[in-house]
Every structure is written in C-alpha cells, then in structure tokens.
Amino acid sequence: MASTDRKVNGLKRHPSCLNESYEEQRKAFLSDEDKLHLFDDLTKVNPVTTATVLKCLQARYATEVFYTNAGCTLVAVNPFQSIFYLYSPELMREYHLASRPRELKPHIFTEAEQAYRNVQSHIEPVNQSIIVSGESGAGKTWTSRCLMKFYATIAAANSSSQMDNDTVARIEKRVLDSNPVMEAFGNACTLRNNNSSRFGKYIQLQLDGAQLLTGASVQTYLLEKTRVTHQAHCERNFHIFYQITKGASKEERREWNLPERADFSWLPNSERNLEEDSFEITKDAMLHLGIDSSMQSNIFKILSGLLYMGNIQFSDSEDESQPCDLQENAKDFIKTTTSLLGVSEEELLEKLKVRTITAGKQQVFKKPCSRAECGMRRDCVAKVIYARLFDWLVAVINRSICADSSEWTNFIGLLDVYGFESFPVNNLEQLCINYANEKLQQHFVAHYLKAQQEEYAAEGLAWSFISYQDNQCCVDLIEGSPSSIFSLLNEECRLNRSSSASQFQARLEKALSSNPCISRDKFSKTPHFIVSHYAGRVNYHIEDMVEKNKDPIPTELIQLLQDSKDYLLQQLFPVEKEQPNNKTPNRAAVVTVVSKFKGSLDRLMHILNSTTPHYIRCIKPNMDCQAMTFKKEEVLSQLEACGIVETINISAAGFPIRMPFQNFMERYQLLRKPQPSRSEQELYINSCAFKNKKGLGDTVENADTLRRVAHEILENLVPEQSAVSSLHIKADTQTRNVLAHCGKTKVFMTHSMLELLESRRASALSERAFSIQCCWRTYRRRKMAKQRQAASLIQAAVRSWLIRMHIKRMHKAASIIKRAWRKWQAKLNALAAKELDDTDVEAEKYISSLPGSPIQATQTSANSSFDKAWTQSTVLHSWPLGMVLTPGPIVRKVVSIESFYRNLSFLTCLKTLQQNGLSKVNTNWSADGITSIRALPQGSIRFRYKKSPLLYANVHPQHHSCRITGFNEILLEKTK
Ligand SMILES: Nc1ncnc2c1ncn2[C@@H]1O[C@H](COP(=O)(O)OP(=O)(O)OP(=O)(O)O)[C@@H](O)[C@H]1O
C-alpha cells in the first residue's frame, strides 16, 4: 500500500509543499513534545502526516488519554486496562446533559450523544449508525457494549414516569443481557484477542417519538461455525463449551454426561482459565431473556452431545468398498452422543459412514465414505447444529428485546463487525471478513471523501482536491460482475465439477488478470491468490475454498436430525412439508456461503446508506494486549489501513454537515436578528410554496435570497469574518477557522458550527417559550379578571331580578290578602251588623231577665249586691284592640286571650259608656256572664284597669275551658 506521506503528496498541491519548510514545520511541531498530548482533535495538527498523528496519539496514550477526534471520526486507542471513571454513569450523564458535548474531552459518549441529538433534532437522515471498526482485539465489542450502556443510562434518565422507568429498565436489562449470551456462544479466545467476536453484529436500538428506548433488535453476520470443529493452534472453541465443562454442577454433569476432567478433542486449551468462562453469568442472562432452566438444560445437553461427537474417530477401512470402522475407544462416545442428541445410534453411524447419492428422480445409490469423508460428515453435523442453535438464540433474543414496529419510530444502529484479518493461512472465512471490511471502508470513503468532494465541486466551492485511496477496484475484484472472485467461486459450486485448486487458480488469473488488486506469489507452490486490500495484502489459499463455499449438508444427515427425539433439535430441524410438484433443486439457484453473505451485507449497506453514520476507529496499541504499551509500528499500520490521514485532511478543510438552504431556513430562521423585510418574508414564503410546488416561481432569485439570509444568520452567530464564507474555501491551513460555507443550494458546516447553531436555536426557542409563557400568563390573568367581573355583573343582575320578582310576588300576595281581608272584613261587618240588629231586642230582654244584670242592677241601684253577683257569675275577657270574641247568643261561653285576661267591672264601663252616650252598647248575658258585647263605637274608648279593692276580684269564679265556637267582633270606631 502506498505510504500515507505519498498520499499527502497526492493532494493537488504544488510539489513544493513537501519542501524544506514543510519538513521544518514537521520538526518544529514534533519538537514541542510537551504539548503534543493536548491535541484533542487531529485536524489541528500541523502538518498532518502519519508521523505527527502517531506522535500525538502516543503522547496522549502516555498521559492516559485514549480518545482523540480525527475530524469526522473518533480514534479510540485500547487502554487494555479497566478505567472505571472513563465509563461511569456520572460521566455518561455529564456528556448527555452538556449543552455542547463537543466541547468536552473526546469520548465515545460524544459520538453517542451526537447521534442521540440528531434523532431528537430530526435532521435528515434521522436514523443513525455508529460504525465501530478496527482489527481484532482493538476494542470494538468493548466500545459497542459501552455505547449500549450509555443509551440504557440516558434512557433511564429521560423516562419521566414510573411506568416509563420500569419499561426502560426492563428493556435495558434485556438488551444488556443479550451481550453475555451472544458472547458466550459467538466469541472465542484467539491468538489476537481472548474474547474475539466470531460473528458480526448490528444492533438497532429502537426509540419512540420521545426518544425513549423501547426495544432493540440484533442482526448477526457470518458466524465462524468451523471453529466448533477446528481450532487453530493456541486458540480455543467458543466460550460456551468451556463454561459448561468447567461450571456445571454435579447434577448438571450427571444430566449432560459431563464428568470432570473429561477429555474432548474439540476443547483445546481448556486448562486456560479466562474471565469469559463464567457459566453463571450466561445462565442468568439467558433466564432474563426468557430461556428457562429446562430449555437451558436442553441447550447444554446438545452442546455436550457435540463435544462427544468430536471424540468419534474413524479408522481406515481395509476394503474401500466397505465403510470404515469406528476407532475402538469411540464406541462409547457414539453411544453418549446419540443419547444426548436423541438420535438412533445405528442410523447416525450408518449415515456418517455411507453417502447416499440420488441420480434422477428414482435412483438412489449408497457409497461408503473414506475415513476423511466420515470425519467431514461428522463435522458437518456438528457445525450445522451449532449454527442453527446460534440462529435460534438470536431469534429468541430478538423476540425478547424487539419492540412492536408501531412502538418505535427511529433507531440508532451499532455495528460491530470483525476486524480486518490476515493470518499465515487465510481461506474463505477471511475472504468474507475482509470483504465486509472493504465494504465498510467503501461506505466511509463514499460518505466522507468521495461524495463530499463531488458535492463541493457541484456547489461551487473552490476546493483543493485531496486524493484518497478508493477501494472500489478491490470491491469489484471480490464481488463485481460479470467476473469476480465470488462469481467464479459460485460458478464452481453451480457446475459442481471436480476441479483442483490449481485449476481454479488458473481460472481466476485468466478472468481477473486486468484487475490490479489481484496478484500471486510466483515462488509459492500452493494454489493461492493475493488481494491488495485497503488495509494490506492478504494471501488466500485456494484449497477447500470451493467446498467451503458450497457448505454442503447431506440431506440424509438433516433427515437424521429431523427424526431426533430431542425437543430442541426438532425445533432446529423442522420437517419441511413436501411440495406437491417438487422439482429437483435448480442448480443455478444453489445458495452458497458467499452469495448468502453478500446478500446480508448488501442489506446492511442499504441500512447504513439510509442513516447518518458516525465512525469510531479502534486502534490496538500492541499485539500482546498489554496495558500502557504503545508500539509505533503496529499503530502506524492500523492508521494507514484506515486512511486516517486522508480523513483528517478532508475533515480539517471539509464540512461534514450539509443542509439545503430550505431546511436550514426552516430550522434556523429564528436565529435571524433583524426581522426580515416584508419582501424577504414574502420571498421566504414563496420559497416554501416552491418546495411543495416544483416548477413555480423564480427559483434562482429565491435561492439567492435564501443564501443571503443563511449567510446573514451564520455571520450573526460567528461574527469573525473568517468563520463563514460564501465564496471560497481552501483545504489549507489558512482556512482552518472557516466553520461554514454557503454553496449554491446548501449550507456546508462543521460539527462545531452545527453544535453552535443548535445550542443558539435551543436558547432562542427557550427565550420564545418564555415570552409565550409570559404573554399567555398575562392573557390568562386578564381573561380571568374579565371573567370574574362579568360573573359579578351577572350575579348582581340575577340577584336584583330575583329580588324584584320576589317583591313583585309579595306585592301581589299582599294585595290579594288585602283584598281578601277587606272582603272578609266587609262580610263580617255586615254579619255583625245583621246579628246586632237581630239580637238587640231579644238580648235586652234576656239580660234584663238575668239576676244581677247590670241593667237590673242599674235599675235597682244596689251597688253592693251587684258587685257580688257580678263577681260570682260574670267573667270578662278583654283585649286591647277592643275585640271581644264571644260565642253566639245560644252558646253561652266567654272566650278570651289569656294574657289579657282581667276581671273587669264591665258593668261600670258599660254604664260609663252608656251614661256618656258615647256608644250604643248591647250586651248579651247568660248565667255565666257576658256572652257578647255589641257596641257601635262612637269614639275611641280607653279602658283603664285598676286593681280591684275587692278581695276575690282576681279569682276566676268558674273554670270553664275556653272553646271557640264562633266569634263576632266589636268595632270600636271613633265617631265624629
Ligand atoms: N476501552 C477499554 N478499556 C479497557 N479495556 C479495553 C477497552 N477496550 C478493549 N479493552 C480490552 O481489550 C480486549 C479486546 O477488546 P474487544 O473484544 O472489544 O476487541 P474487538 O475489537 O471486539 O475484537 P474482535 O474483533 O476480535 O472481536 C477486551 O477484552 C478488553 O480487555
């Protein structure tokens, strides 16, 4: 690969750029060693060369600073030691709550927070991807795990209600629990990394409209299933096998037939104890994901069966026409295997040793297999069981953590794929892994380098083009059409012809000779080809490549597993229903390993292309996984492989954020200080209308206005002249301070400018919100005061109306009463008058006949006898109004009001009255006393009561109960 310094040469600069002054600059920069660790963004390094970049990273590593910005990517150097404070929940919250996280120290949390804010701000494309790359052991899995923890922590912090909190905590637990399970089944100890992921994964964290974590989904790529049966020297099988053999309890050992210290040929280096061997953590996590202990037991039983299967060894058959035999000690192993897998012992042996060949529709041949073939068939069974078990686990995890599609709107994807691999012997697996890395590099190049520069040119930016290493040629070599390595491999599988590795090499050379990325070592005798990847040259061995690509699984072996009595195996190998007119499989449609992998990778790239990418480049500082050891050569090769210098150069001068004027105005219009003039406002409105109605309006004029306004907004924000340019931009050091540029149709800006814009927008929005709140409160206060006033008015009106109505009713009632009273009075008067007239004569007679009558007394003038008789037989009742209620003339009873009860000497009174001629008085007398007095009043009468001098004047002579039986009245009216 060309050296990076040469790539810097590739910039379309004058060659004199690399003259003495450049060298002096470099020396001067490097001489100031004390300050090198302060460069937290490599775009500030001057000049940008691999040497200067490397020095900075080394200086920072020495001061325990592991993250450094490199323009649009973040460089993460693996510390190989646990640094708690670097990933503490407090630090996560600090980055989350910071108004401008980019002003904090570079960290993976800055990238995570940026992605989260992008989702919040709905800047297109809203969905985000964080692509973590780097070679094996560089820290990709660790980084992805930390990112997941970060999102889980901030999701918990953001949930407002208790219910939200519980849901988020539940999802968080499950999402985080998916890690130990997937790592136990998909990671293994390799020469480069004790916990190396042997599969690629893309995790989508699903967020709802309020950016709350509602679920997640996992997609996996190309599990290295060959590791189940073949482990390179000093490497190990998947962690789970060691976990069960080391961590099972006595009971479990009995159940799974796993005695302690049992020897398994597929379990090399089991004497090494690793942190990853913790069985309890895996079981706990499985439980949380909904895999109960009986299902777990079922899984581990199958894994134990696979371990025993590895011990089944065959010996050569003496007669080729006869199937080969089992080795003597393998007989017990096959028994245990079949009992653990629930399959028949005879059938398994038969199908491992004898191949079934179907010719045409009817003809079936049986062919005994060689010892090697038997071994391959055994491995094939183990690999297919493990691969299906892994897929089943991923499906269970997804069922447990995935939210319903209606519950989430956006996602943040975390991609953790295996890093670039180059071993002494590389085969199809490495080709696929390196192809995936090429595709990701291509995505990076396309997104940050190629597309950016093309866009700058289209938008009229005076751009000094930077040459970069475009890996399109290598990608074409691997997957291109019509001829590529993959197409030729697939063709071999489709034709199913017997061809040797050398023949395939010849075919490759012939078909792909025009591609500069393929070559071969003329001195090597083993069939191979060398591919010049962006990260370096890799020598691939051709032997077995075609066969691996076919990944043949003999149907009879699948049938055997379908017939298993084991519950889980039945699920992993369901019996497919026969299609009525089932044709023999189309040869052209044979699904090979590479075609399957290419398909899934294409889908992944499609997702990545529709998201906003964020890159984290993990760097491994030394191959021995030692803390605080920085090996320059090893880091240098990684920096070169990921094209860090080009990235820095483009990022330094470039603008990763691009926003059409229209979108820019919609979002940041409110940052404009002077209010737009009417005509401009109209133009803006027109432009909005234009967005909806293409083809209308004067677009050029609109674009000019929008550009002018956008420029004005940006200048208001960053008053320094150099910070915003609407004319030219150069990829040189003088224009480093330019933060934004207005192109023909778009605003180009740096991340820091976007952050500034966003923070100003947030404060402008909060100011406006405050004003709106104030206005609203004033309006509400006024409205309430008015309402209160209106209510009192209404209340007063209603009250006065009610009173008026009441008075009216009272008046009405009073006049009715008055009328009735008068009527009644008149009637009584009439009655009284009539009665008076009728009884006059009769009464007089009667009274005079009464002994002791006053009249008689008057006539006899015997005062003393009168008094006596009167007091004995007469009771007088009187009352102030001068009314005497009496019974009628027939009923002789006196009725009176008690309180006014007085014994009066009525006769005296009456006499007085008569003597004075004041009134005409008629009295009715009875044996009991006066029964009625009839008088025609001729003036006001005043009775004066005096206490009688008589001894018994106050004594009621008779105690008759008073009964009202009728009444008359005396009207005492003043006569004129
Ligand atoms: N930030 C970190 N802090 C402390 N240790 C780390 C950090 N990153 C990585 N490591 C250490 O490095 C080891 C390898 O990291 P990791 O497994 O993440 O590498 P990888 O890039 O995923 O490798 P592979 O591609 O093989 O899966 C980890 O087991 C861990 O011990």
From TrEMBL:
GO terms for cellular component: cytoplasm; membrane; myosin complex. Belongs to the TRAFAC class myosin-kinesin ATPase superfamily. Myosin family. Residues 601-623 are annotated as: Actin-binding. Transmembrane segments: none annotated. The keyword Nucleotide-binding applies. ATP binds at residues 134-141. GO terms for molecular function: actin filament binding; ATP binding; microfilament motor activity. GO terms for biological process: actin filament organization. Actin-based motor molecule with ATPase activity that localizes to the mitochondrion outer membrane. Motor protein that moves towards the plus-end of actin filaments. Required for mitochondrial inheritance during mitosis. May be involved in mitochondrial transport or positioning. CDD domains: IQCD (cd23767). Keywords: Actin-binding, ATP-binding, Motor protein, Myosin, Nucleotide-binding, Repeat. Gene3D superfamilies: 1.10.10.820, 1.20.5.190, 1.20.58.530, 6.20.240.20, Kinesin motor domain, Myosin VI head, motor domain, U50 subdomain. Residues 37-762 form the Myosin motor domain. This is Unconventional myosin-XIX. It comes from Geotrypetes seraphini.
